# Entry
Amino acid sequence: MTQRVIGITGWKNSGKTTLTERLVAEFVARGMKVSTVKHAHHAFDLDQVGTDSFRHRAAGAGEVAIVSGNRWALMHELRDESEPSLDAVLARLSPCDLVIVEGYKREGHLKIETRRRDAKDTRPLSADDPNIVAVASDHALPAETLPVFPIDDIAAVADFITSRLGL
# Structure
């Protein structure tokens, strides 16, 4: 099965996470299996200081798997390694109908740009990125040449993605 990937990109506070969250819920309601990849520009930790798994990593383990009857997680410490490419991360995901990638604005996958008046930056990304195929916005964009959707019209954005990716 060919992996179908759509990105949600935009400046800080432009609505990326909310749109991603709402699209996941919409596609799951439509019966699809969806995975997500979120790029963080800062150090983050999913683990808590003092937990056994945190102690394993602190002791030097390169990977720590945490497994329970409800979920499992694999944490990989990069140490002296480079951040993996998006393709490398996508290759590690289990098969699914759709992967929604949040962030990774400079990668070459198809993307929908989010725009909000209250965003940290309001410069359009689409002018410099041919992989942006549509815009989801909280305001009218009469000069935009790409398809523009109201950022809250989740069904319309999902229909566009379904059509564009042949889902």
Q: What stands out?
A: The longest strand covers residues 132-137. Helices lie at 16-29, 52-58, 86-92, 154-165. Residues 5-43+83-165 form a domain with the Rossmann fold fold (CATH 3.40.50.300).
